[in-house]
Amino acid sequence: MSRTSPATIGPGDAISIDWEVKDLAIREAQFIFEGPNGTSTSASWRGSDSLSGTATGTLDEWQKSSEFKFKSASFSSPRGYIDFWATGEVWSNYAPDTSGQQLPDVSAMQFTFRNPAVPSAPFLATPAPAEFADNDGIAEDTYTILDREGVEYQVNGQTVAAGTYPGTGTITVTATAKAGFIFTSGTAIQWQFAFSSDRNTLDLSLPPSLVSFKRTSPDIVRDGDTISFDWQVKNIPVTYVLFYLRDRLGNDIQVRWDGEKAFNGTATLTVDETKIASGDLTLWGVAIGTGTTGLSYRDDGTIYKNPSGLQNPEPVSLDFKAAAVHLSPATPYQVTPAPVVFTDKDGTAEDTYTIPAADGVDYLINNTVVTAGTHPGTGTLTVTAKAKTDYTLTGTTEWTTTFKTTPHQVTPAPVVFTDNNGTAEDTYTIPATDGVDYLINNTVVTAGTHPGTGTLTVTAKARTDYTLTGTTEWNTTFKTTPHQVTPAPVVFTDKDGTAEDTYTIPAADGVDYLINNTVVTAGTHPGTGTLTVTAKAKTDYTLTGTTEWTTTFKTTPHQVTPAPVVFTDNNGTAEDTYTIPATDGVDYLINNTVVTAGTHPGTGTLTVTAKARTDYTLTGTTEWNTTFKTTPHQVTPAPVVFTDKDGTAEDTYTIPAADGVDYLINNTVVTAGTHPGTGTLTVTAKAKTDYTLTGTTEWTTTFKTTPHQVTPAPVVFTDNNGTAEDTYTIPATDGVDYLINNTVVTAGTHPGTGTLTVTAKARTDYTLTGTTEWNTTFKTTPHQATPAPVTFTDNDGTAEDTYTIPATEGVDYLINNAVVAAGTHPGTGTLTVTAKARTDYTLTGTTEWTTTFKTTPHQATPAPVTFTDNDGTAEDTYTIPATEGVDYLINNAVVAAGTHPGTGTITVTAKARTDYDLTGTTEWTTTFKTTPHQVTPAPVTFTDKDGTAEDTYMIPATDGVDYLVGGTIVPAGTYPVAGTITVTAKAKTDYALADSATASWTATFDTTHDTAKRLNDFTGDGKTDLIARDASGQLWLYPGTGTGDWSKRIDLGGGWNVMSTIVSAGDFNGDGKADVIARDTNGELWLYPGTGTGDWSRRQNMGGGWNVMTSIVTPGDFNADGLPDLIARDSSGELWLYRNNGAGDWLKRVDLGAGWNIMSSIVAPGDFNADGMVDLVARDTSGRLWLYPGNGQNEWFKRVDLGAGWNTMTAITAPGDMNGDGRPDVIARDTSGELWLYPNNGNGDWYKRIDLGPGWTPMTAIL
């Protein structure tokens, strides 16, 4: 592995570590770096199985500048993990033999974090005491200086590095804090020791030898218990014995005995759970000694001797493993055993019981632990759950069942009988039922529909391995009586004795129709006389309703009205006709002769008579007569149409096409159509043969020869006062010419000058209307111009004295009657510039400018000298500014610009350089203080009530301190505030602020009064996050992106399955960070204060007795008092408000009403309807979702229906604004494990839901 990021990084920069492994494909890698005072940071990588990758991380912008050293590297996969430590240790559950695992050189891994934005407040450092070894004047007399970050050691006034040095005489070791570090109050910083000069003879052949030791304390200990070891030595009595234990996190713990010289004793240690990690404590070493000699025994068999010249001790066999001890947590982990699952298939091979895999739980049968998994089941079985070490159990701990040996029980589906009264539709239907046979007369009948007749009994019989419940026999007797039917009626048609007299026999199932006892076929038959038809039932049928019909057909003829004869008289032409109609029962006669139906020629006088045929009589008119005219057919000629376009080619006349008419001009027939027209034209209509005319028969017109009338478009004159822009514009108009001096001018724009008259003239075939003449006189006076002013720049006689001539159209600028070009020119003396109009221009405004350039030096105002008085410290300085034309002098000596040390009384005088003179202050004096009083400003207090009148900041009264806002001193007191405010503390005269003191406070106040404010931001990035617990009890943080999605999830730790309820609490403790509240299975309520970095501070107990509550939510500030509250439903369905008193406890609870046990889910979305009040959302048992809008007074407005169908959701939560639109949203999981975002549209409804992805089924809590 290697660090690929720079050795020095700043805020926002990434730490990056490239890594590569072999043998074990990795899914997660993490690198831990240690900073000063317990600070740490990490770089991590997560992904699919890989042998290499790059881990990254960043430091928070509030992190102080620090050095970070490598601490550990951890690699994990589903097969196991390996941890490498900077100490050289290797831990693994994957490769038990870690002897071959080595860590590369980690010194190159360290890096420096520089953060100029964070004040370098001193870090706390703790000196390690000096260690003295007095071996009575021999060379082994030593003292040892230990290495501690931020600490420097002096020995007898001389700075020494960490290490071991020879000791003689009296040694005084003093610790001092390095720059940027301070010691905590009361820390020992000096140690003194006098070495003895007596030298005793050391017998190197007789070291003390450990004979035996035995742990005499229990195998399992808890916080406050004592770990004890009995020990025994020989050869030389000892003055100390140390037993070295190591906890699961690698921390070393000493169990110690110290005393007068002894050959045996007991070493003890009182367990402090805050300093020792719970779990196994392994013994890895024992040390014994006398102060001059000693031995260390290690669990690997190594023995270390002090001094090194000691002979080997006598061999001894020590059992380190037997000395291990287990530290249980003060409060065992509470766990609810997952239930045992019994599957009883009625004595078949599928009878099983399944033991779940549950952390902290053993499952026993007959006091024997049974492994997790599915086992065959038989007889009576009792399974008992037993807590493993460090665990206690809640809930059910024993499960019993007796496996049935009888077959599987089944209820036969019923037999269905269909009785259609003895017809072919009489049936019975045998169902298909697993485990059941259906029998008739002891014979199995197959499933399906069968014909039914007579009396039928069906019996159900269980097949092998089945028993029956419910009805097992069905019987019926099928009816033999015929099917009942109503005959359709016979229809009689009586046409009065004609051939149309009929009767119609219908076709009806089950019915015969008879006349005179003879069956008549269905259909229509001729009718005559008296007729009786009788209906008779066919076999298997009976009749209802009318069964006989009778009628007598009339014998008189049928009455008919003859249709009239039609005469067409076209005035003696071939079109004169008469038409005989075709009428049933009627003959038409002329002169007693029958005339066939149809149209016949007509002439003269004609009489037609109608005569009834046989079986008919006539009514109405029976005779018609007419006399055909012999004159021609009369016609009215269509008119001739004249189109007169004023003598143009469009002058025409149109002859119509009319039957019987000719149109003539000058006695000549003109064909129908349109012809050119000119002059005077007379058209006459003449009747053709067999026609006579009526109406108008002559039309006359004279075509006009004058042209088409047109209005000339006007001429446009543009007069720009005699300039080249004087123009006139001739328009283009059909039929019009424009003339000047009788000459046609083309359309377009032409130069204009003098007096101009333009005349419009009609072209051929056109006449003009409106204005036809336009004239103007172009002005010859020039265009008016305003000269731009001349600019004078007077820099007091220097080379920068100039005047600038502008460029202005139509204007010349003159000095002494000479034109001066536009631009900047040197200026001196008195100067007059005059503006003069160019040809065609006249001037307006100022036309002359005068100035006298000063010859005195340039005037300069010295920038002030800045004094910084830090009360006699090295920060006392004065700063000389850099000002053009100014020298700054102290004691008549010029001082360079910059910052200089300040002391005593200093007077600085400003002096003008050549060509400059000074204005303003030219002397500054100060006396630097030598002993200011050090003071720590009391902090400013901000109270943010979300944009209400209670938004305030409070300035404290602190001696020696002024508080400033925007550079202005603000007296002590409380003030209203809005927006962002920064308050700065400044020391008054004779005071200095303490180095470690905070001197600036900034707050941004919320601008809206949001009593429903909820905070689900666990990472401090301003975006709403989600937390979920999986079935193993692991808690996961899903950091929100603000767009309805997540970043990579973060593991928040295990053991959360002891919690029966977990809810996101928003900022419950008022520190601006999102918290979590959880209830354990004992009913104890706990607050987990968030740190804003995806972790928790130490949890806080909120009281017991909460296991009577079936639902707990944290809505925010429900009663609008500025403090977050809690709402809970008890087992009776009563809803209770627990009001926060702001001191870590509750006010008297408030009853919010009963009947809430019909709700299967209650969530707190915050201010869902944007009215500033906290709301609740609840789902009833029918799956309908309801909004209960809070009114801020412990009650609700009328609830709002949010829609049905929510019972398909297995989890509903309301984390806040997931998509960044400022409105709280709802998240729900369906039965397939798909997670859905329902974006709030602000109108009590949703936008289209968004799929957040599958795989959420394993989660037992989502918040």
Automatic annotation (TrEMBL):
Assigned keywords, A-Z: Signal
Domain of life: Bacteria
Name of this protein: VCBS repeat-containing protein
